[in-house]
Amino acid sequence: MIHIKTNKLHMLLILLVVMLTGCSNELDQPELNNNFAGGTDFSKTDDMIFLLIGVYQSVADRGWEQPLVVSTRGDDVNAAGDQQGLKNQDRYVYDNSFFGSRTLWETYYGDIIRAHTGMEQIGRYMELADEDGVALGNQYIAEAKVLRAILLFQLSQVYGAVFIPESSNLSDFANVTSVPSKDEVMQHISDQMDEAIPFLLDMRPNERTDLPGAATKYTALHIKALANQELKNYQAVADAAGQIISSGKFSLMDDYYELFKTPGKLSNENLFEFQYSDFGVGQGDRVSHLYNPYGPNGWTPAVAGAGAGWGFFEPSMKYVKFMLDRGENKRLETTVLFTQQGIDSIIATTSYTAGTLPSFVSPTTRDGDFLKDNARAIFCSGKHYLPSNQLIPGRTAYGSNKNYIVYRYAETLLIYAEALLQGASNSAMTADQAVNLVRARADLTPISGVTLDQLVDEKYAELAMEWGKRFFDMVRLERYGELSYEGRTFTKDKAFVTYHQDQIDEFPILADVPR
After folding, report:
1. Are the CB atoms for 367 and 326 separated by under 8 Å?
2. What is the DSSP code string of 428-491?
3. How far apart are CA 473 and CA 229, in angstroms?
């Protein structure tokens, strides 16, 4: 079995940033996709891991606009700032010339093809490997399938019907005659996870010593549960999520506020996260994500010189009022950062006064960062906020060194509970127990005989601002009225973003896909 120590992994990530940047143009050429390794010596089976790390790095290397295209719809979040295409999308007015929808499609498919390239090259190593090497190759291919599934799942949530690449050979798309429906894509993802699970490690991602935080059996089970939730196959959801719960390996991090900050990196709650690092030093190489879109457009940080953001991603007033009315403290403080202008707006439109609002409803965060009033947003996302006092000295970029959580155990508990309420059965725990675990961390009293309405509210409170989960829930449950708020009008035909004109020009068949 191959193991790479954590300190060596940091250097490998740095190396791969350079390698993948240099080879990206070549990967776009169909004739090279089938011979990516060139003159590689496939008898050196220990080198298989480099291909896998390359897939991980490629999948985590998301442009700033891509998570926003996935996330910026729903009554938990408003698009702000000066990106009109994003603001239009937030109001369900889809612009087929918006660069964000183009880059989401192009880069996600580019990375899916890279995953296939990695799997195919690992297969070539396996032809010359011993028994242990074959087993390791099967594990690495299974992990690449998980990473591919994450991207394909999000693409289908955004666009509905999308293509399903089966190899790295781009000529397969030359004469496509149909586009798989969303249901077909979700079933494909579920089937892929069934193929992968037997070969994946039976441990939490943070228990891995070869690639700490990398995908395991439980990451795949969570993705399978999500795909079947989209299919409304609730028994399959309960079965997959129930396996995660019954493993006893996962637990909720006690401090919800710190879960989304440095202490929450690779916590026992996280089933998968995009990993970024400054490698513990204040200058030099880093693996990063551009968090500026989520940050305040003006602040006085506790640590002088820490960079501000752009104010593109704003919690909605509807969500803020919902949380205040529930008496939420921990989750509201974690999810929303306030300006004084935002506080004044709350007071002007509710019965709250400066004296009755919780003390954390303040322009100054508990870590001493002060948000200034600005023209772009009256609130900012706390889940994408890294306090300036958690920056490594010497680093000033907003959110530098912060991981991006994709899946976590709280969601597993809530989708499991919903599956039971939708008629599924499982003995891992009751729906009440699953919901009350999540509520207990938020310092809320337990409930008995939880209803679907209460479960939906719990997901709203817990998962807001995370990958558009609220929007996709409301579409799946056909609760369209919740999405018609603050001047917006949502109808069923607005569930999917319009394909970009560049994609339609390349694949005219997309013009005929029902939206």
Report:
1. no
2. S--HHHHHHHHHHHTTPPP-SS--HHHHHHHHHHHHTTSTTHHHHHHHHTT-HHHH--TT----
3. 9
pLDDT tens by residue, 355-403: 999 999 999 999 999 999 999 999 999 999 999 999 999 999 999 999 9
Distance between start and end Cα atoms, the chain:
48
Between 27 and 150, the more confident residue is 150
Q: What angle do CA 100, 221, 452 make, to 5 degrees?
A: 80
Decide: helix, strand or coil at residue 79.
strand
**Band of pLDDT at residue 38, cut at 50, 70 and 90:** low
C-beta separation of 320 from 332 below 8 A? yes
What's the sign of the alpha-carbon dihedral 65, 67, 72, 73? Answer: positive
Collect all residues with Cβ–Cβ distance below 8 Å to 333 and sequence separation of at least 6: 257, 358, 360, 366, 382
Residues 6+ apart with CB under 8 A from 393: 282
pTM passes above 0.90: yes
Inter-helix orientation angle 234-247/217-230, to 10°: 160
Three-state SS at 300: strand
**Using CA atoms in the order 10, 12, 16, 18, what is the torsion angle rounded to 10 degrees?**
80
HEC per residue, 309-345: CCCCEEECHHHHHHHHHHCCCHHHHHHEEECHHHHHH
CA distance 219 to 207: 13
Those residues whose C-beta lies under 8 Å from the C-beta of residue 145, and which sit 6 or more positions away, are: 115, 119, 192, 193, 195, 196, 220
How many Cβ atoms from other residues are within 10 Å of residue 477's Cβ? 14
Residues 214, 208 contacting (CB under 8 angstroms): yes
- The H-assigned helical ranges of 127-255 are 131-159, 182-196, 217-230, 234-247
pLDDT of residue 294: 98
DSSP H helices, 28-130, are 30-33, 48-60, 65-71, 84-90, 99-126
Pairing of strands 77-79, 270-274: unpaired
Length of the chain in terms of residues written: 515
β-bridge pairing 336-338 and 270-274: unpaired
